[in-house]
Design a protein that fits this description.
Layout: H1 5-8, H2 22-31, H3 34-43, E1 45-51, E2 60-67, E3 71-75, E4 77-78, E5 83-84, H4 87-95, H5 100-107, H6 116-122
Antiparallel strand pairs: 1-2, 2-3, 4-5
Length: 127
């Protein structure tokens, strides 16, 4: 039986999110043949094998693709449209979303600023 693409990279399944990084992408790129490199250049992505991530019940196809911002990435089709998403771009977008807890704290006074008497009046203890 032929050695699978992922066996070459000594990837242990289930794969953790932290294992999928630029180092793995570069290692995969350097080990694929000329045909796959050409396919990556023309089509933008190339299939590298099936993997199972931590917490998944099944294996999914993984691809090597080129992100406009971050360069080579390894990922799997995501979402309803099954697009290849760069995890670094996704993390950057998520970091731009305001923290709901901070937003609520800015709208309401902090508990420390409310005196104990007001708390007792607002939330009487009944037995």
């Amino acid at each position: 039986m032929a050695e699978s693409m992922m066996d070459k990279f000594r990837v242990k399944e289930p794969l953790r999110t932290s294992d999928v990084n630029a180092e793995l992408s570069l290692e995969i790129y350097n080990s694929v043949g000329l045909f796959k490199k050409l396919k990556l250049k023309i089509l933008g992505s190339v299939y590298i094998g099936h993997l199972q991530m931590e917490g998944w019940s099944t294996r999914m196809p993984f691809y090597l693709f080129r992100c406009v911002t971050h360069g080579l990435e390894v990922g799997y089709p995501s979402g309803y449209s099954m697009n290849l998403l760069c995890m670094d771009c996704l993390k950057e977008r998520l970091s731009e979303i305001p923290d709901p807890a901070k937003l609520l704290r800015s709208l309401h006074p902090l508990e420390d600023e409310i005196d104990e008497e007001a708390k007792v009046k607002a939330f009487p203890i009944t037995s």
